[in-house]
Specification:
Elements: H1 2-15, E1 30-34, H2 43-55, E2 60-66, H3 80-91, E3 95-101, H4 118-135, E4 141-145, H5 160-172, H6 189-212, E5 217-219, H7 225-228, H8 234-237, E6 247-248, H9 250-253, H10 262-277, E7 284-288, H11 306-318, E8 323-327, H12 352-366, H13 368-371, E9 375-376, E10 381-385, H14 387-397, H15 407-420, E11 427-430, E12 445-449, H16 456-467, E13 471-475, H17 497-500, E14 502-518, E15 521-534, E16 538-543, E17 546-554, E18 557-562, H18 566-572, H19 578-587, H20 590-595, E19 598-599, E20 606-613, E21 616-623, E22 629-634, E23 641-646, E24 651-653, E25 656-659, E26 664-669
Parallel strand pairs: 1-2, 1-8, 2-3, 3-4, 4-5, 6-7, 7-8, 10-11, 10-12, 12-13, 13-18
Antiparallel strand pairs: 9-20, 14-15, 16-17, 17-18, 19-22, 20-21, 21-26, 22-25, 23-26, 24-25
Helix pairs in contact: 2-3, 4-6, 5-6, 10-11, 11-12, 15-18
C-alpha cells in the first residue's frame, strides 16, 4: 500500500512538473522568466521576484551566473548573491536553468562564444569547476545552460585559440582543390570548420560540467536560427544535451517578417528547433518579455503587446515546446540593456504582458493532463532547407548585398507561411534531419524551394522518396550548384537530371514580372526564369514555346519542377499567398486533405496549429487580421470543439470559430 501511494505521488510530481522532475516529451509545459541577478539588489527584491513567479503560476526561471559577480577583489570566490536566488527559488518551488557565464567585459551583453587563448580557456574550466561544484546541491537547480546563445556566422580566426584549432582541423581534413571531373572548386573550409567548432566546444563544456554534476540537465539556446542555421548541427548536439532550446526575440530575429506575421516567424523558429531536437525535448529558452530602447536591431524598437505574448507562448506549446521562458522578469539596472526587456514594471508590478503570460500558465495548470503529452499532428508536408545553400549564397554573393540575399531561407519560409493561411502545419527541416528510411511515402509531400546547393546523397534520398510514392515540389534555383559551389549544369553533369527527368537550358533574367500558367492558375514569378529540356518529363507550362515547368513520374511518385522563384515571389507579393495556395491545394493528395486539420478556405492573416493528446486534439487559432473573423474548421472525423482558452472571448459553434483581431483561441477537440 505504502509503495503504491509513493509511486502514485511520484508520478503525480512528474506529471505536474514538480521541482526535480526530469524533462521529457510528456512533461507539463512550463512558463517562466529570467530573473536578472546583479549587485545592489536587496534580499526582499529577490524574494519578491520569485514569489511573483509563483503567484503567476510560473514554475521555471533562468539565471545568468556572472563570474564577475562571484569574485571578490582579492580573486576569491563569493557565491552569496546567487545563493539568495537559489534559496528563493527553492522556497517558491521554481526550477532554475543556470546559464554559465564566465568572466567577460561589463559591456559584453551576450558573452563570448569561444576562448581567446589557452589561459582564457583554462580560466573558463576553472569557473565551471567552482560554479557547478557549489550550486549542484541546490534542489532548485534544473539544468545548466552551457553557454548563452551559441552561434557565430564565421569563426573568430583572429583569436589565438580558434586559429590554432583551425590549423589542427585543416591538418586532419583531406580536402581537394579539384572535383572528380577535374574542375577546380572553391573550399568551404571556414564554414565547415565553424559548424564543427560549435559542436566541439559545446561538447567540451558538457564534459566539463559532467565532471562535477552527473545529474542536472544540460541545455543550450542557439539564437537567430532563421539566419544562423548554417552554424548549427543539431543532430550532433543530441549526443551531449538533455534538452535543446532557443532564443527567439522578435525585435532581433524576425526582421525577415512583417510584425503582423511574427506569429508565423515564431512557428517557423519553433519547427526548426523541434526538428533539430529530434528525440530530445525542446523549449524556448528566451522570448522577448518587454521593450527595446537601444537594443533593438536595425531600428526595430518594439514592445510586445499582451496579445503577442499570448500568441508566442501558445505557438511554442503547440509545437511541443516544454517551456517558454521570457527575457526578462525584472529589468537589469545598470549596463547595456538597462531598463529594457522586462515583464514587470519599475514598481515590480505585473505588466499587461505578465498578466497575459500568467493566464496561459494558469490554463496549462488547469489542463495539465491534456496539454502535457501534446504531439504535433503531422500534415505529411515537409519543407526542406540545407546549410550548404546558405553558405553558397553568401560566398557567391561576395558581400554585394544582391537581391538574392536570404533567398535560400526566405523561399522555404514562403511555403511555410502560405500553408499557414490554409491552416496546415508543415514540417521545416534541415535535410539531415529528414527520415529517408521508410519504404512507402505515399501521401507525403516534400518541398525543395530555391535550395541552391545539393549533393549526390540528397539527390539519391529524394529519388528514393519519390520512387516510394512521395510527391516532390521543386522551385527556384534548386540544384544550381553542388556542395562546392560547382555549377553541374554548366559542366554537363546536372545532378538532378534523373530526379527531374529534365535539365536546365538557362536561367534568364526577366526585366518585368512574368506568370507561369499551370492549368487554370497563373503563378507570378520575377527575376530568374528557368528554361528546361525534358528527358522523360512532361511539359506543364511554356513561355514563347520554351518549357518552364515540368511533371515527372519516377517509380510510384511524382516530381513537379518550376525552375523560377514562385515561392519567393509569392512572399513578396500582395495577394497574401492566395494564388500559390490555390495551386498548392490542387497538388496535395486527396487523402492527405481528408485527414488534415485545416481551414475550409484560404484565410488571410489567420493561423492554426494542431497537436494530438492521446485520442483528443488541441488547436491554436490566431487572428492577425484587423477584423473579427468567423473561420470554418475542417477536421478528420466527427469531432466537437470546446474552447479552453480565449484571449478576447472568442467562441466555437460546431466547427466554426469566431475570433477577434489579435486573439488567440485554444480548442479542445473530442
Amino acid at each position: 500500500m505504502r509503495k503504491a501511494i509513493f509511486t502514485a505521488l511520484l508520478m503525480a510530481a512528474v506529471a505536474t512538473g514538480a521541482v526535480g522532475a526530469a524533462t521529457t516529451k510528456t512533461s507539463t509545459p512550463q512558463i517562466g522568466a529570467q530573473v536578472f541577478i546583479e549587485p545592489g539588489q536587496s534580499d526582499a527584491q529577490i524574494d519578491l521576484w520569485f514569489r511573483t513567479l509563483k503567484e503567476s503560476d510560473m514554475t521555471v526561471a533562468r539565471i545568468r551566473m556572472f563570474e564577475r559577480y562571484m569574485r571578490d577583489k582579492d580573486g576569491g570566490w563569493d557565491f552569496a548573491l546567487f545563493d539568495k536566488a537559489f534559496r528563493a527559488a527553492e522556497k517558491y518551488d521554481i526550477e532554475l536553468y543556470a546559464t554559465l557565464f564566465p568572466y567577460t567585459e561589463f559591456t559584453d551583453v551576450g558573452g563570448f562564444k569561444f576562448p581567446r587563448d589557452d589561459p582564457h580557456s583554462d580560466a573558463v574550466m576553472e569557473y565551471i569547476n567552482r560554479t557547478v561544484s557549489h550550486f549542484k546541491s541546490f534542489k532548485s537547480l534544473k539544468a545548466w545552460v552551457l553557454i548563452n546563445e551559441p552561434g557565430l556566422s564565421s569563426p573568430p580566426l583572429n583569436e589565438r585559440f580558434t586559429a590554432r584549432m583551425y590549423r589542427d582541423w585543416l591538418v586532419r581534413r583531406a580536402d581537394r582543390d579539384y572535383n572528380q571531373a577535374g574542375y577546380p572548386v572553391p573550399d568551404f573550409d571556414r564554414e565547415r570548420f565553424n559548424l564543427w567548432y560549435h559542436t566541439w566546444y559545446l561538447d567540451r563544456l558538457a564534459k566539463e560540467v559532467r565532471k562535477y554534476d552527473a545529474k542536472s540537465e544540460l541545455h543550450v539556446n542557439p539564437h537567430n536560427v532563421l539566419r544562423l542555421y548554417g552554424s548549427y548541427d543539431f543532430p550532433a548536439w543530441r549526443n551531449f544535451l538533455t534538452t535543446l532550446g532557443g532564443s527567439a526575440h522578435a525585435s532581433w530575429h524576425f526582421s525577415m517578417f512583417k510584425r503582423n506575421a511574427y506569429n508565423i516567424a515564431m512557428a517557423a523558429n519553433s519547427e526548426m528547433l523541434r526538428s533539430g531536437a529530434g528525440p530530445l525535448p525542446w523549449l524556448m529558452t528566451e522570448l522577448q518579455g518587454g521593450n527595446n530602447i537601444f537594443s533593438g536591431m536595425s531600428s526595430a524598437m518594439m514592445c510586445p503587446t499582451p496579445e503577442e505574448t499570448t500568441q508566442w507562448l501558445w505557438t511554442v506549446m503547440l509545437t511541443e515546446g516544454k517551456a517558454g521562458i521570457f527575457w526578462c522578469l525584472n529589468p537589469r539596472a545598470s549596463g547595456a540593456e538597462a531598463g529594457e526587456w522586462a515583464l514587470l514594471n519599475f514598481k515590480d508590478k505585473p505588466s499587461g504582458r505578465m498578466v497575459a503570460a500568467a493566464s496561459v500558465a494558469r490554463t496549462i495548470r488547469e489542463n495539465a493532463a491534456l496539454l502535457s503529452p501534446l504531439k504535433v499532428v503531422e500534415s505529411g508536408i515537409t519543407i526542406l532547407y540545407n546549410r550548404e545553400s546558405a553558405w553558397t549564397e553568401t560566398r557567391q554573393g561576395r558581400g554585394r548585398n544582391t537581391k538574392m540575399e536570404g533567398s535560400s531561407i526566405n523561399s522555404p519560409l514562403a511555403y511555410f507561411e502560405a500553408l499557414a493561411a490554409l491552416g496546415i502545419q508543415a514540417n521545416l527541416k534541415e535535410i539531415r534531419e529528414v527520415d529517408f528510411s521508410e519504404s512507402d511515402y505515399s501521401g507525403k509531400v516534400m518541398i525543395l524551394s530555391n535550395q541552391w546547393a545539393v549533393d549526390q546523397t540528397l539527390v539519391a534520398n529524394l529519388e528514393k522518396f519519390v520512387a516510394a510514392g512521395g510527391k516532390l515540389i521543386v522551385d527556384g534555383m534548386s540544384g544550381y550548384y553542388d556542395y562546392n559551389a560547382h555549377c553541374t549544369a554548366a559542366s554537363g553533369n546536372f545532378q538532378m537530371a534523373k530526379l527531374l527527368g529534365a535539365s536546365p537550358v538557362e536561367y534568364g533574367l526577366m526585366e518585368e514580372g512574368f506568370g507561369i500558367t499551370l492549368g487554370q492558375i497563373t503563378l507570378p514569378a520575377r527575376m530568374w526564369m528557368g528554361v528546361v529540356e525534358t528527358a522523360g518529363a512532361t511539359s506543364l507550362a511554356q513561355i514563347d514555346s520554351r518549357t518552364v515547368a515540368t511533371s515527372y513520374r519516377l517509380g510510384k511518385g511524382e516530381v513537379i519542377w518550376i525552375p523560377s522563384l514562385v515561392g519567393l515571389t509569392a512572399r513578396e507579393g500582395k495577394d497574401g499567398y492566395q494564388t500559390l495556395d490555390q495551386w498548392l491545394t490542387g497538388q496535395l493528395p486527396g487523402p492527405m486533405l481528408d485527414k488534415a486539420f485545416r481551414f475550409a478556405a484560404f484565410e488571410r492573416g489567420v493561423q492554426m496549429l494542431t497537436a494530438s493528446s492521446g485520442k483528443e486534439y488541441v488547436s491554436l487559432i490566431v487572428n492577425k487580421s484587423s477584423q473579427q473573423r468567423t473561420v470554418p474548421i475542417l477536421t478528420p472525423g466527427s469531432l466537437r470543439g470546446r474552447v479552453i482558452f480565449a484571449g478576447k472571448g472568442g467562441s466555437i459553434d460546431g466547427s466554426q470559430v469566431t475570433i477577434a483581431p489579435e486573439e488567440s483561441i485554444v480548442i479542445r477537440w473530442q
